[in-house]
Each structure stands twice: as structure tokens, then as C-alpha cells.
């Protein structure tokens, strides 16, 4: 069986195991996951809004709350925020929790990394703010 997938206005795709899922995102205002079946077909995509004018780019999959479920982190270039979608463990995610990527307006986050920078065994988010010419660190408070 041949299948054709058409993703309009996609700028990136990330493939990872989230209950055997594929995660992708659009350039508009949503983050999308598509669940894989074991016969090389996919369930219908589930779309998660990131906000009007957010321009999400790109997505990262990291267990940010240490519950052994991969969560989604997205840079929202357009509104200067970092979005986190916590994984319910059944292939779905909660609504986005947003964090400012830096101080001031037009921060335009364009790159991020996730690692434990303060040695507390919790993943922190480091973001490069192109519009503000700085970097920001979001320390994980564990809640």
C-alpha cells in the first residue's frame, strides 16, 4: 500500500516515541501530533493551539516534569514565549503553559536547548532571544 502525506506550511518535523507517535508542528498557531499504528498508517492528527501569531518553531520532546512521559516544548517566535505541553501518557497533551523567553518585547526566541544547568537533576530551558540579543534561562521549579 502506498500512502502520500501532504503537510502544508511545515518547516520542521520531529519524530520520537510518544506512544509510538510522530510529532510535527506548523508555522501558523498550532502544534500537532499524529499517532502511528503498527501497520505503517497513522491515526488522524491531534492539533494543539499555541496562540494567535505565535509562529511556533521548532518543537522539542523532553520529559520536563520527570514523570517518565515525553513532553513537548515549542518556541513561539512570534509572541516571545516558550510553550510546554505536558504528556498525559495516552498520546494526548494538556493545553500549552506559556513562559516568557526573556525580558522586554520582541524577544523572538529562535533556538533553545534543554539540560540541567544548576545541578538539581531537573531539566532547565536555555533560549536564544534573537530579537533581544540575549539568552534566557528558565529554571525548572519542579511543579
From TrEMBL:
Keyword Signal among UniProt keywords? yes
> Which UniProt key words apply to this protein?
Signal
The keyword Amino-acid biosynthesis appears for this protein: no
Its transmembrane ranges are none
Q: Which Pfam families match?
A: FG-GAP_3
Q: What is this protein called?
A: VCBS repeat-containing protein
Question: What organism does the UniProt record list as the source?
Answer: Adineta steineri
Q: What is the lineage of its organism?
A: Eukaryota, Metazoa, Spiralia, Gnathifera, Rotifera
